[in-house]
Write a structure and sequence with these properties.
Layout: E1 6-9, E2 16-17, H1 19-34, H2 40-44, H3 51-58, H4 63-76, H5 78-81, E3 83-84, H6 88-97, E4 101-105, H7 110-119, E5 128-130, H8 143-152, E6 159-163, H9 166-175, E7 178-182, H10 189-195, E8 199-201, H11 204-214
Helix pairs in contact: 1-4, 6-11
């Protein structure tokens, strides 16, 4: 049994099915402001920086206008194009019940992160939310994970990083965390599998069973 004291989650493709919403949001602003209809592959090539950083590079002369348009579209279309992955809330409930510290480390900006976590009803599960807007660097930099470790005074070997991308694997490796790759909604599934990690799960049911087996069940009064 592992001594799990904290779990850090990515959002997109991990907790939430948001990739299509992100694709359509970027397609919307690019079609409107540049006349280009981007492919999913072209949009994926932007991933890493926050939405604001991407927009500032694509549309430097009208950043605020395009940014507001992007987030308006993102919020208005959220419930039609995005949802919580089935089984995720059961996992979060289990971890919370057993006094596991829960965190978010995402490259998304805070505005879109809070929209998604609020619309899917899971924002209150998390003790710390670190977004791309809060950091100088981006994944796979350790800064976001380090904030989590320091806040709750945890040792890296007792903390897990759960994500669907290679950058999440590298966060775990760079920071000395236990790495968990999930591929149920990864846009880079084959490369993630080839890259390897401490653990890999293709569905939420297996991840739930893993936590049931490996968490040290605590009495709710322990902390």
């Amino acid at each position: 049994m592992l001594n799990i004291e904290g779990v850090i989650f990515d959002i997109d493709g991990t907790l939430c099915k948001t990739n299509q919403l992100i694709f359509e949001s970027f397609r919307h602003i690019n079609k409107k402001y540049s006349g280009r209809n981007l492919t999913d592959t072209e949009i994926i090539s932007y991933f890493g920086p926050t939405e604001t950083e991407i927009i500032s590079k694509l549309f430097p002369d009208k950043i605020q206008e395009v940014e507001n348009d992007y987030f308006d579209f993102y919020k208005e279309n959220h419930n039609n194009l995005a949802e919580l992955h089935e089984g995720i809330e059961e996992i979060l409930k289990l971890l919370q019940l057993n006094k596991i510290h829960l965190g978010i480390y995402t490259g998304k900006g805070r505005r879109s992160s809070e929209i998604t976590l609020t619309e899917t009803g899971i924002i209150d599960y998390f003790d710390l939310i670190v977004t791309g807007d809060d950091l100088k660097g981006s994944k796979p930099d350790c800064e976001g994970a380090r904030l989590f470790l320091e806040k709750f005074e945890l040792h890296p070997k007792n903390v897990m990083m759960v994500g669907d991308a290679i950058t999440d694997i590298l966060v775990a490796r760079n920071c000395g965390l236990i790495g968990i790759s999930v591929t149920w909604d990864s846009y880079d599934k084959n490369r993630v599998i080839e890259y390897g990690n401490n653990y890999l799960f293709e569905n939420t049911s297996d991840l739930l069973n893993f936590f049931k087996t490996n968490i040290n069940h605590r009495d709710q009064a322990d902390r």
